[in-house]
Amino acid sequence: MPHFIYTFLLTIALPFVPLKLLWRGIKQPEYLHHWKERFGFYGAKPSKPVIWIHCVSVGETRAAAPLVNILLSQYPKHSILLTHGTPTGRATSEQLFGNSVTRVYLPYDVPFAVNRFVKHFQPKLGLIMETELWFNLIEACHRHHIPQLLLNARLSEKSAKGYEQLGRLVQHGLSKLALVAAQSNEDETRFKLLGAPHTMVAGNLKFDATAPAESEALGLQLRALLGNDRTVLVAASTREGEEPMILDAVQGLDVLTVIVPRHPQRFDEVEALLKERNIAYVRRSQINKPIAANIQVVLGDSMGELYTYYAASDFAFVGGSLLKFGGQNLIEAASMGKPILIGKYTYNFAEASKAAVQSGAAVQVRDVDNLREKIQLLIENPSKREKMGMAALNFSKASTGTTVRMMHIIGQYLN
Fold it and tell me: In angstroms, what CA-CA distances link 201 with 184, 347, 412?
């Protein structure tokens, strides 16, 4: 695809964007906030040189946390700018970093909007988390001599085939990046085949993300409310269509299941499912005393508590993997020393999932029946849970160090 056709198609679509924001705003009103930023209109200009980090949503923001904290410490004469694509990503940034960083929405990838962004903030360096390729933004930064590093870069086989269809557009875009720091050898190879000239393997930043200091204590408090004498499974970051499968898998088993949907706008949808099935449940936000013995499911309807949920559980299922969503981040569960169950669709975290299974930290299941079998096995075998939990901790600790490698790279551009 020629670059001008890419730009033309985006420009044609632009008038319909406000309708999309309004539609999303019905379910999630936060989409209606700060909407001018998406078109390149921002407030006060920064007073210090800017280091810009793009974290599209929650996962990327949490993964960037170790990097952001070190940048704040080592570069106090710079301002850290975080850009996001979703309200949940922005809220996570606020929760993690407060007023120590500036946060805005990344503009849509049309020339007038990205040019406004670049001229307004004039970043000294752009750090793009994972695989966010916006070709007009890349072009604008290249034209203004702003180096861009694609960090924690991952590219599944499916995504690589999609990008391959865009041909020279992708090749030219990747050629203007200063570096692609890939998570694995496979990721690096795919970026090279698409035309990235400057690549390296740096590892996965998500292994360096640490739980909030209070997570263990909060987890013990929550566990006391859930029942210390009950076996607790947390089904974390579940996606649409997975909750019915999980409920089928745990039906009749002696386990309290905590279901934490990936997206907060789905809390009410999952609650409706629990009502439809006549399942005794309680929402996390309504728990202020020990729950009744007949409660089968806790609906995790709170934000920023995933580590607390893990700390309160005996083992975890990590969602997005029973259906073709590519899997969610299992590293957080591993860092809390929890046995992990995952489905067969893990291409978003292929390397980490493979390593977790090989280390004994995780078990991959084929379908709902297999998931039920493995849940029952872990319910009945505390020693198996303990062994997998230790393997998870060792797996997590052995994979750290990516932040240090990336800070060395970043220093070459900032010093």
Answer: 6, 18, 17
In the chain, what are the helix, strand and coil shares in percent, each to the nearest 5?
55, 15, 30
Instruction: Report the distance separating Cα 178 and Cα 192, nearest Å.
Output: 14
Q: What is the helix (H) or strand (E) element at residue 121, kind and residue range?
A: helix 111-121
pLDDT value at residue 195 = 94
Whole-structure pTM value: 0.81
Query: Which residue of the set 37, 60, 188, 332 is catalytic?
Result: 60
Q: Both 8 and 67 in a single domain?
A: yes
Same domain, 164 and 241: no
Residues 87 and 151 in one domain: yes
* Judgement on whether residues 128 and 273 belong to the same structural domain of the protein: no
Is the pLDDT at 366 greater than 90? The verdict is yes
43 and 166 within one domain: yes
CATH number at 349 reads: 3.40.50.2000
Compute the distance between CA of residue 340 and CA of residue 318 in angstroms, rounded to an integer.
Answer: 7
Q: Note the pLDDT tens digit of each residue in 330-364.
A: 999 999 999 999 999 999 888 899 999 999 999 99
Question: What distance in Å separates the CA atoms of residue 180 and residue 79, rounded to the nearest whole number?
Answer: 23
The answer on 254 and 204 residing in a single domain is no
Per DSSP, the three-state class of 16 is helix
Summary mean pLDDT of the chain: 95
Please list, in sequence order, all residues whose beta carbon lies within 8 angstroms of the beta carbon of residue 183, skipping any fewer than 6 positions away.
Answer: 152, 153, 154, 201, 202, 203, 204, 351
- Is residue 132 annotated as part of the catalytic site, yes or no? no
CATH number at residue 51: 3.40.50.11720
366 inside domain:
yes
% of the chain at pLDDT higher than 90:
86
Q: What is the span of the domain harbouring residue 343? A: 215-390
Are 62 and 96 in contact, with CB atoms under 8 Å apart?
Answer: yes
Domain assignment present for residue 133? The answer is yes
Of 322, 314, 177, 174, which is closest to residue 246 (Cα–Cα)?
Answer: 322
Identify whether 395 is part of a domain.
no
pLDDT tier at 166, thresholds 50, 70, 90: very high
Q: Please, are residues 162 and 140 in contact by the beta-carbon 8 Å criterion?
A: no
Taking the C-alpha atoms of residue 167 and residue 3, their distance in angstroms, rounded to an integer, is 10
